Amino acid sequence: MADEAATLPLAVSMGEPAGIGTEVLLKSYAQLSQAGSSAPVFFLIDDPARVARIVREIRAPFRVTTIEDPAGARDAFSQGLPVLPLRGIDPASLAHVTPGQPSAATAAAVTGSIRQAVELALEGSAGGVVTLPIQKSVLSEAGFPHPGHTEFLGELTAEADLPAGMPRGPVMMLAAGDFRTVPATVHRALKDVPASLKADELVRIGTIVARSLSYDFGIQAPRLAIAGLNPHAGEGGLMGMEEQETIAPAIQALRSQNIDATGPWPADTMFHAEARAQYHAAIAMYHDQALIPIKTVAFHDAVNVTLGLPIVRTSPDHGTALQIAGKGVARADSTSAAILMAARMAYSRALHAG
Ligand SMILES: NC(=O)C1=CN([C@@H]2O[C@H](COP(=O)(O)OP(=O)(O)OC[C@H]3O[C@@H](n4cnc5c(N)ncnc54)[C@H](O)[C@@H]3O)[C@@H](O)[C@H]2O)C=CC1
Ligand SMILES: NCC(=O)COP(=O)(O)O
């Protein structure tokens, strides 16, 4: 990790303050900072007084260090968790957070933290962005127009240049070790999925995944397995036509671009261990088709990563877990994995950029 740790510090957005985000980040800091100079350096964008209060409440064996800019994170990291104050947000909006009870009153801080993290990454002050989970329903109540980070990040980075040859995302991928799944449609009602599947969109997603597996993850000849939509991948048209009309033509188009894509595979049998050994990433047709297998097998290890962005972005795979917020029982493995993955991706991008 020595070289990876030498890249720019990672910016961590605060996520829902009534959820488990702060707790898992503090636990990750306690764990990862043990690695000393080989630990990836990161900082949280939040209200330092709020975070310091939580650190005192849980009697964490470290403190919070307020930094004025990302450059201050490296020196501060060995002393305590570096926290960069939220820009343009009244800290009073975060003064009355009750664990487990999210409120629209904190929405500006939550979305402002993401925006600030992305800006720092785009201007080259941060090596990438790690987002802590947001409560999507509460942000929506407050007028936030995006169903999740993925779409918001696409908008925030729409004008920025991508690495050479990388088509523009955003594309969501969940990854745990060699197990990688991509939902071709993301935050969409199931009833709307069939009509929204388009061959050219599947080709764009497949191209981004293949390119990113090489560029960000060092897989030189990525193999993609594409799922069908219907039971038994349509059973020759008996159970649906999307495989023949949309998915198979997209696979042909990917193959004509020398991308090693196969399918459409029946989704029920493509995720067991022997099947997974045949490919580097599965492209599923909808959110739960992609996320159920990986969260079942690797809930505490998986990372949510956005491909096809001008910046690196990862996140723990879990949500705000309001039921256990404030109880001290949340596991930080996925957050630590997200930080380590972002550091590795930032290092890989820095190497490519020369
Ligand atoms: N990247 C993001 O911002 C994400 C946000 N969400 C949002 O989170 C909210 C809650 O979503 P849910 O579907 O309930 O999923 P969830 O992941 O918050 O919780 C599902 C179950 O897993 C448990 N759990 C989650 N994280 C855990 C951890 N670190 N340690 C131990 N147990 C843990 C919870 O207690 C609950 O039983 C929703 O608003 C959802 O949209 C969900 C996923 C990702
Ligand atoms: N289930 C994954 C999820 O909802 C995360 O979405 P995003 O906030 O990363 O776009």
UniProtKB/TrEMBL annotation:
Its main location: cytoplasm. Binds 1 divalent metal cation per subunit. Can use ions such as Zn(2+), Mg(2+) or Co(2+). Its cofactor is Zn(2+); Mg(2+); Co(2+). A divalent metal cation binds at residues 187, 232, 287. Catalyzes the NAD(P)-dependent oxidation of 4-(phosphooxy)-L-threonine (HTP) into 2-amino-3-oxo-4-(phosphooxy)butyric acid which spontaneously decarboxylates to form 3-amino-2-oxopropyl phosphate (AHAP). Belongs to the PdxA family. This is 4-hydroxythreonine-4-phosphate dehydrogenase. It comes from Parvularcula mediterranea.
